[in-house]
Structures are given as C-alpha cells and as structure tokens.
C-alpha cells in the first residue's frame, strides 16, 4: 500500500495537469490542401482533439517549473537558438511587459513538442492544422470566401499581434480560437515541405514556394494566404525561435 500511494498521487497529478486546457473535438473528414500538396487528391484527416487556444505564457511557465531543464539558461543550443524565450525577464519570470494570457512565443519545435508530450498530447500535423484553420464561424471550409481570406491577409500586415491575449479572435466552426489573427504555430511535420536554394531547380513545388516567387502562381486570395503559411513553415528549422511563432497541442481520439 505504501508503494502504491506515490504512484496513485502521480497519476492524479498528471491527470489534473492534462485537464487544465480545454480541447475542441474535431470530426474526421477530407480536404484538398493548397500549397505544399504533392497532388490534388483529397487528404484524409482522422478525428482528433485540438486545444481551443494557443499555449500561454502562464501555462508555459508552469511547465518550466515542473521541467526546469527546459528553462532559458539551461536550454542546449542544439534544441533552441539564442532567441529562446528572449522576451522573458528571466528563467521563471515572463515579466510585466508580457501578458499572462498572451501566447508564449520564441519557443522552438523541440520544446513545443516536449510540452505537448508532457501533457499526454502531441503537436498537430500540418494537415490537421490546415483542416481546422480553413473553417470560419459557420462553415467547415470557408477558403473560397473573400471576406475570410481578406481577414487572414489583413492580419499578416498587423504588427505585434503576438502580444495580445488568446481568445480575442473569432470562434470557428469547431469551437477553436486564434487559428488566424494572433501567432503562427508549429506543426509536428512543419518541415514536410522543404524550401532550399539547392532544391529550387529540382522540383517545381520548391521553386514555386521559395521566397516570393510562389505568389506569382497564387492567383487568388485563398492561394496567396496558404502560400504565406507554407513559405513561412518551409523557412524554419526545429531549433529556430521567433517572436510571432507559438503552438497548441492536439490529441488522438481513442
């Protein structure tokens, strides 16, 4: 009995930790991805759950206190570059200038992945993220709506949206906030579309996506908005951190 008690308490604590964040239930379905797709065939997305909001400074601070090896001063360079949490005042203080309810940014793919795994979750795949992100308030797929795409593109032009609190953008069809209008977000397979100077001559996909050349083929707002996302993802490496890049977690449905 004495040996069982610590294990029981650990399970209870882990369960409470994983239940802090509300998740939306996403039904499975198919959709045709835009930029980054190798074919125009529909992609199957299985049912899964997704965090309603991006991970906040407060939530990430709790994670760091529990797993201090991921703090700024102890982070190894192979897992995050020098900008890792550079906006924070110290290892365990995000500072008065950073809202507790604002999304945590300047976090590498490695640490975002670790955070989700410590909650029994994972990062969403790129197809899962795009599937949820194509919804507006009423439609599962609003990508052909001019007003929806204008909203996305107008956000691209706004400065410092990463400093805003989560949950201030619209609630989409699935009950998820901030897919557009707050921060860019890591996906598990962000590098499934590679952009490199060497590969531009080898594949049409890479040539079309590299830097600004892809916008030539983005004949409408929908394609251009998607191009910007794929181009941004393709410029990243797992250890990179930027002030407008955050993340949220996903979970398989049993």
TrEMBL record:
SUPFAM superfamilies for this protein: C-type lectin-like
Domain annotation Sulfatase-modifying factor enzyme-like: ranges: 22-251
InterPro entries in the record: CTDL_fold (IPR016187), Sulfatase_Mod_Factor_Kinase (IPR051043), SUMF_dom (IPR005532), SUMF_sf (IPR042095)
Protein name per its UniProtKB record: Formylglycine-generating enzyme family protein
């Amino acid at each position: 009995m004495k040996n069982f008690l610590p294990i029981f308490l650990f399970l209870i604590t882990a369960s409470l930790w994983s239940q802090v964040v509300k998740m939306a239930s996403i039904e499975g379905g198919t959709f045709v991805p835009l930029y980054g797709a190798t074919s125009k065939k529909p992609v199957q997305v299985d049912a899964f759950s997704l965090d309603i909001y991006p991970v906040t400074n407060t939530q990430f601070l709790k994670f760091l206190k529990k797993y201090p090896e991921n703090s700024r001063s102890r982070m190894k360079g192979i897992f995050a570059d020098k900008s890792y949490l550079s906006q924070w005042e110290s290892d365990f203080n995000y500072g008065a200038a950073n809202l507790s309810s604002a999304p945590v940014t300047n976090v590498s793919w490695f640490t975002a992945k670790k955070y989700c795994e410590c909650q029994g979750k994972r990062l969403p795949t790129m197809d899962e993220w795009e599937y949820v992100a194509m919804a507006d308030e009423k439609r599962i797929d609003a990508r052909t709506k001019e007003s929806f795409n204008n909203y996305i593109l107008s956000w691209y032009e706004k400065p410092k949206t990463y400093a805003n609190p989560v949950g201030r953008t619209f609630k989409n069809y699935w009950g998820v906030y901030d897919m557009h209008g707050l921060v860019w977000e890591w996906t598990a397979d962000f590098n499934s579309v590679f952009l490199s100077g060497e590969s531009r001559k080898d594949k049409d996909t890479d040539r079309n996506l590299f830097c600004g050349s892809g916008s030539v083929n983005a004949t409408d707002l929908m394609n251009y908005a998607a191009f910007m996302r794929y181009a941004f993802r393709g410029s990243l490496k797992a250890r990179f951190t930027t002030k407008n890049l955050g993340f949220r977690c996903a979970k398989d449905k049993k």
